[in-house]
Design goal:
The protein has 331 residues and is mainly α. It has 17 helices and two strands. A two-stranded antiparallel ribbon has the order 1-2.
Length: 331
């Protein structure tokens, strides 16, 4: 393990320290949900996925916000596990659609068990997440998660239609982010507000925060495709480009590149293959990575401003620190 990775983990632990016990409870709930399945295959795959860890961003957002709003119960742990279950289902299906072979430094479920099993277990996770949500019996919670699940599916279709299209611009890119990343962050905020009976003003502010956080998170993730270390990030470098995904570094690079370089990138996007090392060099030389970092910082500032209505607390502090963490992360 590299020193950078250790530092990143130490930072994550620091940011999430106020809810460390809540996050442990989320993992325990997920393990129980998989263990109660009548299918040994589902239990096996569920254990495999849970043990892989992950950032647990969506449960973390929900639980930090619930506590920041003064909630003192335990239902936020159940809902944290619920939203993580739904998120994991989307990852399972994404990996099948994208033919992804690695995630978080390990083979994906579809690589290990095949596409058919991965799709069906993903379906189990979707439906189990709704069973878990209903146990809380809060209509606002159910509306938030049901709407998010619908929007996620819409986002996947939009992203698929955008694939191999070099005309994708920043507006279309952000439209996908909103539906594939930010929407579950926003659902976490709405669910926290429902638990805490938060005011409409606070809910609106926290949703604004999550939209900024989601944008910053995805931009930072897309930067890793061209400047990250696969051992640190657990991400296949160049995988997004190979799938024809036109992300912000590519968009900015094409805006700044020479006509020759732009044509080279456009042809590679359309064909779904090309000299990735050369493309990566063009992107880095164009200043696109620096522009992306600046764009992520703009979202960070928006998120910080959105938290203004919240009263001071250690939980609010962690939400502020979370913005910086997602922008600066290496994995």
């Amino acid at each position: 393990m590299t020193s950078n990775t250790s530092q990143a983990k130490k930072t994550a632990q620091s940011v999430l320290a106020p809810i460390v016990e809540d996050l442990k409870a989320v993992d325990e709930i997920l393990e129980r949900e998989f263990a109660h399945s009548q299918s040994p295959t589902i239990t096996e795959i569920g254990s495999y996925i849970t043990q892989a860890g992950g950032k647990r961003m969506r449960p973390a957002i929900l639980m930090l916000m619930a506590r920041a709003l003064g909630y003192e119960g335990k239902d936020h742990q159940q809902l944290g596990a619920t939203i993580e279950m739904l998120h994991t289902a989307t990852l399972m299906h994404d990996d099948v659609v994208d033919e992804g072979m690695m995630r978080r430094g390990r083979p994906t479920a579809n690589a290990q068990w095949g596409n058919s099993v991965a799709v069906l277990v993903g379906d189990f996770m979707y439906t189990r997440s709704f069973e878990m949500m209903i146990r809380i019996g809060n209509l606002r919670v159910m509306q938030a998660l049901a709407s998010a699940a619908n929007t996620l599916s819409e986002g996947e279709v939009i992203q698929m239609k955008n694939a191999h299209d070099p005309s994708v611009d920043e507006a279309r890119y952000l439209k996908v982010i909103e539906r594939k990343t930010s929407v579950l962050f926003a659902a976490a905020a709405k669910m926290a507000c429902a638990l805490a009976n938060a005011s409409e003003e606070n809910e609106k502010a926290l949703v604004q925060y999550t939209m900024a956080l989601g944008n910053a998170f995805q931009i930072a993730d897309d930067i890793l495709d061209y400047s990250g270390n696969p051992e640190e990030s657990g991400k296949q470098i160049g995988a997004d480009f190979a799938e024809g995904k036109v992300t912000l570094p590519v968009i900015y690079a094409m805006q700044a590149a020479s006509q020759e370089d732009r044509t080279f990138i456009e042809e590679a996007i359309r064909n779904g293959h090309g000299d990735f090392e050369k493309i990566s060099q063009i992107i880095r030389a164009s200043g696109a990575i620096e522009c992306c970092k600046q764009r992520a910082m703009e979202e960070l500032k928006k998120g910080q401003l959105a938290l203004a209505p919240l009263s001071p607390s250690i939980f609010k502090n962690s939400l502020i620190e979370l913005l910086s963490f997602v922008v600066e992360r290496k994995a």
